Amino acid sequence: MAVPVTGGEPLPGPPYAYNADLEHLEIELLLEGVYKHYGFDFRSYAFASIRRRLWKRVEGEGLRTISELQARILHDPDAMERLLLDLSVNVTAMFRDPTFYKEFRARVIPLLRTYPFIRIWHAGCSTGEEVFSMAILLEEEGLYDRARLYATDINDVVLQRAKQGIFPLERMQEYTDNYIKAGGTRSFSEYYTAKYDGALFSPSLTRNIVFSQHNLVTDRSFSEFHVIFCRNVLIYFDKTLQNRVHTLFYDSLVTFGVLALGSKESLKFSQYEPCYEKLSPTEKLYRKVL
Questions:
Q1: Domain extents for the chain?
Q2: Which of the residues 45, 81, 114, 242 has the least number of beta carbons within 10 Å of its own beta carbon?
Q3: 171-183, pLDDT tens digit by residue?
Q4: Looking at the domain that runs over 98-288, which CATH code has it been given?
């Protein structure tokens, strides 16, 4: 899950002179209906982001109002799937933010070497680029055979794409550049072959990855982890929901486990800020100490 692309074209929005109070009510009713009928809870997501994406789906369905969209998605599961894709916009890349991965190699890998077995959770994994990046990094550090990576997302459609391990061939130059800047030690092309009109990554990289649907808003912890990645997900949640997710992560991390957040996310002002120490002066890597 990552920052939506908004440049260039005007954002979808309500018709001119649309009643703002009515719009707010319609959105509340739609989100309540989605939660009660489908079990997906978006009620505490940042309002501006949800509003923009709902109007995008109104436009995509050829409708005029949020209420019309509500009626459609409640009676048409396929429309709900299309909405779910809009509500979990996925913009990601392999070794995205290379300096983050370089810091991870330098500061977290030595800690992971002290464990006989390593469990890592990628929460909100999207189409899997981050998970495959970590599998490659652990392989190069000689730790992958004693690691298990849990890749979860609310959206089953993107999870199925992640399982395939096929990424756009035209992005391989970008990914190669990221990999090199992230401290990669091999030739990046060793990890994939051009196949199925894309780049098929080696099936051996998925041997220790478990893909599963998980909703950070409503689902509980399912194991204890040495590292939790949740990068560029919390920015979509309001403060109450962020605190709820931080509780989930805190309860899911072993003592001295590591939490990795996105560049615009932080533990500051959360109730768990005193429970972590910062591992890196430049990247959002935190170690649970209390």
A1: 20-87, 98-288
A2: 114
A3: 999 999 999 999 9
A4: 3.40.50.150
